[in-house]
Amino acid sequence: MTFRLATWNVNSLKVRLPHLLDWLARAKPDAVCLQETKTEDANFPLVELQGAGYQAVFCGQKAYNGVAILAHAMPTEVQHGIPDFPDDPKRVIAATVNDVRVVCLYAPNGQALGSDKYQYKLRWYEALAAWLEDELRRNPRLAVLGDLNVAPEDRDVHDPKRWAGQIHVSEPERAAMRKLVDIGLADAFRLFEQPHKEFSWWDYRLAAFQRNWGLRIDHIFLSPQLAQRCIACTIDKSPRKLERPSDHAPVVADLQ
DNA sequence: ATGGCTTCATAGTGAAGA
């Protein structure tokens, strides 16, 4: 029996609900972290998801952001936001699913180097790493999933020269992500040999998906205990090929 | 080529995403 964990930035749960239901039926994940639900809690499609066999905890708002954790088992010990980091956007939800502490994240985009939003992104990462360091001590079975909005290395970028120094790949952002991983987490995707040029996001413009002009910015980070149990991690590009897709593809990890 | 596409909030376009 494996435990399948996944993360997917759906870019509007309302628009993507048919794709999500189709994907849940095909991929059969045990727990899924969603980002950019762009849905107020009152409008969350709980009935439809329960009909597909999933419980859900969620934290949303109108128009932007919004995160959720879906699972076959009812998530417990739900936490919203980073403790002691007041933040209006709904970017963080954590819950326990079976014996795994699941943290679902939607990192700030950062917009442009040197902007206020960039500074906010770096501050957010700082607070996140401090919190998760503590969370890891309390929960040896910790899984951190989400749209982290950073491509950690040049091999996670379709054209490193074109992207050099840009948002999502700048050195301060990569340092912030390394600091997060260095609390003792493993990038599940890099535990395995992977094809070259595997990405999780492609711009809607310029037929970027068809040209595989993408970035790997959606991640699954695992505590040592879970990394030891991890037997596979892949990016599922199939929903990106559908009509009116999310610009992100799901990332999936299987635990023994 | 500083655009290109998509979403949402709007009822014209504009902001934001990445």
What this model shows, in words?
With 256 residues, the chain is an alpha+beta fold. It is built from six helices and 14 strands. The protein has helices at 13-27, 46-51, 116-138, 160-163, 171-181, 224-229; strands spanning 3-9, 31-35, 55-59, 67-71, 76-80, 92-97, 100-106, 142-147, 186-187, 201-202, 214-215, 218-222, 230-235, 251-255. It has a six-stranded mixed sheet with strand order 3-4-2-1-14-13. A hairpin with a 7-residue loop joins β3 (55-59) and β4. The N and C termini lie close together (7 Å). The model has no long low-confidence stretch (mean pLDDT 97). The structure holds one DNA strand of 18 nucleotides.
Helix and strand arrangement:
Layout: E1 3-9, H1 13-27, E2 31-35, H2 46-51, E3 55-59, E4 67-71, E5 76-80, E6 92-97, E7 100-106, H3 116-138, E8 142-147, H4 160-163, H5 171-181, E9 186-187, E10 201-202, E11 214-215, E12 218-222, H6 224-229, E13 230-235, E14 251-255
Helix pairs in contact: 3-5
The protein binds one DNA strand of 18 nucleotides through residues 11-12, 15, 36, 38, 62-64, 109-111, 149, 166-168, 201, 203-208, 215, 217, 244, 247.
